Each structure stands twice: as C-alpha cells, then as structure tokens.
C-alpha cells in the first residue's frame, strides 16, 4: 500500500492537472495562429458527401471567449479548492468537513424530537407510539438488512422477538451492543471431542437436550464427550449468557437445526460479528432504537 501513498502521486496529480489546463491554452493559441492557404473560394479543399466543403473561417469570438473563461475558471477553482495534489485550497474545504457540518445541521434539527424521550425509562420509551415509529424507521435503515424487516432474523442472524438472548436481554445490554457491536465466537471443537464418530455422537446428545429427534444410542455415547463443550455451554447444556454461549436445551437454533448442522458447528466453529453503529447513530437515536428492540420481546403496555 505504501506505493499508493507516496509523495510521487501528489506531484503526479498536481502536475498532470496543471499541464492539462496549460495544454488547452496552447491548443487554442495554435488553432488561432496557424495559417491555412485556402482555395480561391475560401475552402480548405476537404470535401465530404460529394459536395460538403470545409470553409477556412476563424473560430467564433464568443466560443473563444467561453473557452478562455473556462480555463480561467479552472485555475480559480484550483486555487480555492483542493485540486492540485496535496494543496488544500484557500477555502480549506474538505468533503469530510462538509459531511460533518451537514450531520451537525441534521442533528440540531432532530434534537428537539429526541429531547422529549430524555429521562424516560426504557419501558416508557417502548410504550410511546411516536418513539416506536422513530425506532421502527431506524431499525429498517440499520438493522433489517440482517435481522429482517419483522426482526425475526434468519439462519445465523438472531430473532429479536423471541426473548432468546445470547449475551444479555436488558436495555443497557442492547444499547451497548448497538453502539459497540458484538462478536460471537465458537471455536472448532472436533479435535477436543475426538474423531468423526465422537462428533456425531455429541451432535445426537445435543439434539437430545432439547427433545429433538435423535439416535438414543449415539446420544448416550456422546454424553461423556460433551464434557469438552461444557466449559461454555455448561454441564446441563443450558449455556452461559454472560459469555454469549447459547442454551442448547430450548430448541432455538441460530445456525440451523439437525444432526448435520450441529456436526458442522462442532467441526468448523463459528465467528459471527454484528457491526458497531455508534459512528452512524447518535446517543439519542441509539437509546430509542434500543428501546424499540427491547420492546419487541417485552411487549410493554402502550402509554396513555
């Protein structure tokens, strides 16, 4: 990457830009001073379509003036704005600065709307119709791509309406997750469990924990091998919410149900990530969005 961040490219871009503008002036000067010896009828001798002849008339003055004005504008624009390599321009304009200014303007405009929710408890916000309408729009813009428009998720994307939470379920946890993101990791466990048959046996034992269809003989053999998984999922398979280890007894399957799906998880593990949204949403927006998400699985009473 250092090849693309050296000083050479700044000089190259600046030089190419300046030379291009100068070349336009040179081209105009050449076209205005070059003499052509026309025929007696003031034509150049070029003929198209049988009778279409090229006249030797000078460029219209208005066109020449417009061309010169365009070149002057290019130099003025380059002086005011960052055009020539690393030169920042007299106005000091940057796209980052303009974006930040526009974001500030928008946040100032919406601040009074969110101010009414300050000091309200999550239950009160989740029961406020206006707050939930705002939360729904935020969810559609920033969350629905993964969790679905109905928030019921999909394979490998959690359902936010069922109350089955891996790392926590209160408003503070949801708010922090939206702001900072979350990474969920299950390491490959095949080597710790044993060979392929041991992995299959463990998969059947895991199925038995939730009362799912399974091979009882394999499940009994897999119970001992499940000790390798108990460090995270617990001896009873009910998981540990503090570390985000799922409950294997409740019949909720984030990455797919069935023997083959569990074998795949044991063999390959998983590394899922929810991106942080703090760079896109301000504190007030995150608070309302967290209340909206919390409300989908807690169903607060509507405010009067």
Quick overview:
Helix content is 52%, strand content 7%. It is built from 13 helices and 4 strands.
List keywords for this structure.
two-stranded antiparallel ribbon; membrane; Cytochrome Bc1 Complex, Chain D, domain 2; repeat; oxidoreductase activity; 304 residues; 4 strands; single chain; 3 domains; elongated; Cyt_C_IC; mainly alpha; hydrogen ion transport; 13 helices
Overview of this structure, please?
Pathway: Energy metabolism; oxidative phosphorylation. It is found in: Cell inner membrane. Residues 130-210, 217-297 form the Cytochrome c domain. With 304 residues, the protein is mainly α. The protein folds into three domains: 2-80, no CATH class; 103-181 and 275-298, Orthogonal Bundle (Cytochrome Bc1 Complex, Chain D, domain 2); 185-274, Cytochrome c-like domain (Cytochrome Bc1 Complex, Chain D, domain 2). It has 13 helices and four strands. It has helices at residues 7-33, 61-80, 95-115, 122-126, 129-142, 144-147, 171-180, 190-193, 196-209, 216-225, 230-233, 259-268, 283-298; strands at residues 43-48, 52-55, 182-186, 270-274. Strands 1-2 form a two-stranded antiparallel sheet. Helix 5 crosses helix 13 and helix 7 (171-180) packs across helix 13 (283-298). The two termini are 59 Å apart. The model has no long low-confidence stretch (mean pLDDT 90).
Fraction of residues in helix: 40-55%
Low-confidence sequence ranges: none
Strand proportion: 5-15%
Tell me the structural class: mainly alpha
Main pleated sheet = 2 strands, antiparallel
**What is the terminal-to-terminal distance?**
59 Å
- Counted by DSSP, the helix tally is 13
Mean pLDDT: 90
CATH architecture of the largest domain: Orthogonal Bundle
Report strand order across the widest sheet.
Answer: 1-2
The CATH homologous superfamily of the largest domain is termed: Cytochrome c-like domain
Q: Compute the CA-based radius of gyration.
A: 34 Å
Q: What sort of overall outline do the alpha carbons produce when their principal axes are compared?
A: elongated
Overall number of domains = 3
Number of strands: 4
């Amino acid at each position: 990457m250092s090849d693309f961040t050296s000083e050479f490219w700044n000089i190259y871009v600046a030089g190419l830009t300046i030379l291009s503008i100068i070349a336009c002036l040179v081209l105009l000067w050449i076209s205005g001073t070059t003499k052509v010896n026309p025929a007696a009828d003031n034509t150049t001798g070029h003929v198209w379509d049988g009778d279409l002849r090229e006249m030797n008339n000078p460029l219209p003055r208005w066109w020449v003036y417009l061309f010169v004005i365009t070149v002057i504008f290019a130099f003025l624009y380059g002086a005011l704005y960052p055009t020539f390599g690393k030169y920042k321009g007299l106005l000091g304009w940057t796209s980052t600065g303009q974006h930040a200014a526009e974001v500030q303007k928008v946040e100032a405009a919406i601040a009074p709307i969110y101010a009414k929710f300050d000091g309200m408890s999550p239950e009160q916000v989740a029961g406020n119709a206006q707050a939930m309408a705002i939360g729904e729009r935020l969810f559609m813009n920033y969350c629905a791509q993964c969790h679905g428009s109905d928030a019921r998720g999909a394979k490998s994307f959690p359902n936010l309406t069922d109350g089955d939470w891996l790392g926590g379920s209160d408003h503070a946890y949801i708010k922090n997750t939206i702001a900072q993101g979350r990474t969920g990791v299950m390491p490959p466990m095949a080597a710790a469990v044993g060979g392929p048959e041991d992995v299959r046996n463990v998969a059947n034992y895991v199925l038995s924990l939730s009362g799912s269809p399974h091979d009882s003989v394999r499940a009994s053999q897999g119970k001992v091998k499940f000790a390798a998984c108990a460090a995270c999922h617990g001896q009873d398979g009910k998981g540990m919410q503090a570390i985000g280890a799922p409950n294997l007894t409740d019949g909720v399957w984030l990455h797919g149900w069935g023997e083959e799906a569990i074998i795949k998880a044991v063999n390959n593990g998983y590394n899922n990530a929810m991106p942080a949204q703090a760079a896109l949403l301000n504190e007030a927006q995150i608070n309302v969005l967290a209340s909206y998400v919390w409300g989908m699985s807690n169903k607060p009473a509507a405010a009067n």
